[in-house]
Amino acid sequence: MKNFIHGILVVSALASAVSLSAQATPATPAAPGTQATPSAPATPSTQAAPALPAVDDIVSKHVEALGGKDAINKVKSVYMESSINMMGADNPSSTTIVDGVGFKNEMEFNGTKIVQTFTDKGGWMINPMTGASTATPMPDDVYNAGKAQINVADPLCDYAAKGSKLELMGKDGTAYKLKLTSKDKIETVYLVDSTSYLVTSVAAKGKMQDQDVDITTKLGDYRKTELGLMMPYALDVDLGGQFSLTIAVKKVELNKEIDPAVFAMPK
């Protein structure tokens, strides 16, 4: 049970970052930056589906929907306070991000504090529920899966500069389905609404009880901050249909002065 709870807490810590449907496998994925090609020509009795836009056109509109490059670049730090509803109880959580430097999430659960920290050099965690009451270096697979959270902008905004590959997999309802593959071979599937161009869902693989699980985070209640950046205030996390939790953002402070020392692993 402790390992099960540990897995949930790891996921909730990751999902509480604002940077976060099952993935269908198309017969022939479109190449990055290209339009998808219909699998067969339209017959006289059918009408050809509208051509899909290029990947970079979707990304460009997504950046504008978030507030534009200027608004994104103005944000150097983020501090958030959230409430994570899990097993019928609300658990307070705080997240601190200094752009390109570090990400730290702290959550209280049953009188204990669980900490996860990512920096540009490595990560560490504290989880008394698994016997790790002191800071412990983060395993490489966990670090690689979550290190992108040290960046304020989501990974779609500057995917090429980060060495990632982005593919348009088609549409899922009214949303564009984009698969991002990082340079560390971490795959994440994003649904971007075709009207608002905001991310509505993020799907990725995770670990719980040493088993692979599909983790889907749905994002909503986007609000514009004082600097013009749009941020989601509601997140629903599903772990393979076996468990779910909800995250409600209660407070956001941008460009708060933060000492980078908060990300250093205690000795």
SSE layout and pairing:
Elements: H1 2-15, H2 55-65, H3 68-74, E1 77-86, E2 89-98, E3 102-109, E4 112-119, E5 123-127, E6 132-137, H4 140-146, E7 165-172, E8 175-181, E9 187-193, E10 199-208, E11 211-224, E12 230-239, E13 243-254
Antiparallel strand pairs: 1-2, 1-13, 2-3, 3-4, 4-5, 5-6, 7-8, 8-9, 9-10, 10-11, 11-12, 12-13
Characteristic key phrases:
single chain; 267 residues; mainly beta; outer membrane lipoprotein receptor (LolB), chain A; 13-stranded antiparallel β-sheet; 4 helices; disordered N terminus
Low-pLDDT residue spans? 1-10, 16-39
Helix vs. strand class: mainly beta
Query: Beta-sheet strand percentage?
Result: 35-45%
The SSE order reads: HHHEEEEEEHEEEEEEE
Please tell me the overall pLDDT.
83
Report the radius of gyration as a whole number of Å.
Answer: 19 Å
Shape: globular
- CATH level 1 name: Mainly Beta
| Helical residue percent band | 10-25%
Q: Number of helical runs? A: 4
CATH homologous superfamily classification: Lipoprotein localisation LolA/LolB/LppX
The CATH architecture term is Clam
What is the topology, as strand order, of the major beta sheet? 6-5-4-3-2-1-13-12-11-10-9-8-7
- How many beta-strand segments? 13
> What's the end-to-end separation, in Å?
29 Å
Task: Give a quick summary of the entry.
This protein is mainly β and 267 residues long.
Description:
With 267 residues, this protein is mostly beta strands. It has one domain: Clam (outer membrane lipoprotein receptor (LolB), chain A), CATH 2.50.20. 15% of the residues lie in helices and 43% in strands. The protein has 4 helices and 13 strands.
